[in-house]
Amino acid sequence: MSENEKAFRMHRAYVKDLSFECPSAAEIRGSDVGVDIEFSVRAEHRRREPDGLWDVSIGVTLRYFDKGTGDTHYLIEATQGGLFEISGVSEEETDRLLRTECREAVYPFLRALLWSIGGHSGWKGMLLKPMEFDDLYQAAVESGKTESVTHDS
User: For residue range 40-56, what is the model confidence (pLDDT) as tens digits?
Assistant: First the structure.
């Protein structure tokens, strides 16, 4: 492929980091009444050398807990990665692709991972809502803060 040809494709997705704790597994009684979640997400990217592929990562911390006691039912910290080829486009377009399209490609793998791990805990699995990376990117551009994306809910 010549240097001027446009290319955008995902080479692979992979689990970069995973930590799971379920301190109350022995006490599970099957009720999800009175539970809540804490959720935070972070995203980053870097260019690999010497192949020039982009490593795009989305990491989350998810805590499923009892609202009354504050006891943690389970805690998952996970980072999902993807390797992308981007060429033949401007720096501005590369930045937009990294912060939107690449993250949108990686996020479903992360959602599936969290659903599976949470469901295997004996507690209810957690299917995260889709994220609008285009909206987050646009807000970051308008505020002048495009260094990283962090979201808490």
Answer: 999 999 999 989 999 99
Domain boundaries, the chain: 7-130
Bridge partners for 7 per DSSP: 87
**Interval 66-93: pLDDT, tens:** 888 888 888 999 999 999 999 999 999 9
* Matching residue, tokens 């469901």: 119
- Strands lying side by side in the sheet with 7-21: 7-21, 72-87, 54-66, 35-47, 149-152
Beta strands in the chain, from DSSP E residues, in sequence order: 7-21, 35-47, 54-66, 72-87, 149-152
Q: Are 32 and 124 in contact (CB under 8 A)?
A: yes
Residue among 74, 72, 56, 73 nearest 114 (CA): 74
Model pTM?
A: 0.83
Evaluate the CA torsion angle 82, 88, 94, 96 in order and state its sign.
negative
- The CATH H-level (homologous superfamily) assignment of domain 7-130 is SecB-like (3.10.420.10)
Contact 76, 117 (CB under 8 A): yes
Exposure string for 36-56, b = 16+ CB within 10 A, e = fewer:
eeebebebbbeeeeeeebbbb
CA nearest 22: which of 78, 80, 64?
Answer: 64
